[in-house]
Amino acid sequence: MQSLTNISLNTIVKKQVKWKAQLYISALSSLVISQIIFGVLTSSTGSGSSGHGGGNISVQFSDYSLDIFLIVSVIWAFIVGLLFTTKAYRMDDLSVISSRTSSAIANIFVMIIYSFMAVIIIVSSYYLQVLGVSFMEKKFFVIESLFISPSTLIVCFSSICLFGAIGLLFGTSFKGPVVVKIFVLMFMLLALLFIFMSPGSINLMPFIMLPNLMMSVLNLLVASLCFSLTIWIANKSEVSRK
Amino acid sequence: MTITPLFFLFIPLLFLVVVFLILNKLGERTKNIWTPKRTMIGITCYIILGFTAFLYSSFFSESTIPVLSPSEIKQAEKKFERIQKYDQEYNSSYLKEGNKKKTWKINFEGNTLPVVINDDNYSSLKIRQRYNDTIEPGKALVTYYQFPDIVEGIDLSDEVPLPNVYVAQNKLFIEFLSEQEVHYYRIKATLDILDFNREIEHKPYGRYDSYSSVLVIDIPRSTELEDSQGLVQYID
Hints:
The complex is a heterodimer of chains A (242) and B (236).
Chain A: H1 9-23, H2 25-41, E1 48-52, E2 57-64, H3 67-84, H4 87-92, H5 100-136, E3 141-145, H6 150-175, H7 178-197, H8 205-208, H9 212-236
Chain B: H1 3-29, H2 36-59, H3 70-88, E1 100-107, E2 112-118, E3 126-131, E4 139-146, E5 150-151, E6 154-155, E7 164-168, E8 171-175, E9 180-188, H4 192-202, E10 207-208, E11 213-219, E12 224-226, E13 232-234
């Protein structure tokens, strides 16, 4: 039975976001499990360590920071972004009324929602690890800062969003027109060549030295660019009506 | 770029990717058990657990080790500079009663006291000799003064092991114990990779231990301290 009802893109996207956010929830559970694994693996060493020698006493510090959880989350976001564009996930689009563009937009919104959830999961994982360490190492347990600042949380959110956006863009590019595929392949090849030929020329220090909010804005700007390109490519690869 | 850093960079990444892919496959197989609703309940429980851990840590987790703020470290640095200045001027007025940690009363024969120092660790302990008119001939006082030994905002002075001080064959032996290792588990609710690079230029991060401990040998004026190693310095 065919329907002649004209549904707006806005409504389709809203329905798809709701549908996909529930359907792809297993992606978040894989994040929780991997954070538990890495949290346990780094429970004795922390995210980083430093040492000072000299005299008749040497000091070792195991630092428990958000780093490891953020690294796990950004890689997770990239993989999830890629997976969202795979055939298995695209098959799910058939369950609801969709087009490639609406699906891409819905994926972007789901990615943003999941990035936000990922930040909450990072915070949970971190405090569970802190609790574990406080129970295990009571004598030499040092609290330098226990509360995560909002700016740090924003950096986490923007970084996860950025990597998710890159993953989505990559995945969509390989499903897009041939020109885009060739361009992406060329870009990757050149980027790899550049990295291996002159690794010293990649300097992230100016970016790292930026204040947290500035860094977040930059991350979100690049993420927006990736999201826009994703929509554009999805729109280009739409089955045209003749 | 050599192969080794690349290897160390890619192995954890590869491990992460493998973990995600395995979890993804497992997720597909356990789709019937882990329905979206159950998964959502599981994730919510995890978040609640994390929140409870946060509340518990905020109210009940206490650290007995205080961390000095950058301004306090700066103040300590200034204090060390003052101590160093006094010491270089052979002025013992910086050795206060409050910094005394241990005193050894020793007896010896004759008017000469040879000193043997065994310090394999090249310890930062300073050894000073001071004349004290209140001490009887044949007796000496060895006093250990402990000043703050600050590393990254943590005062290690309580962890510094005391040397062994004893008299044998009419010689004063000062022996340092083998290097002690202290391991701290530090909670920093930040992104360390960012803070580390940013703080290198702003935060005083080094170790201020050059005058963290001083050992003073008080002897009567009639006694001569024989220091063949040249490690003992006179102080007034």
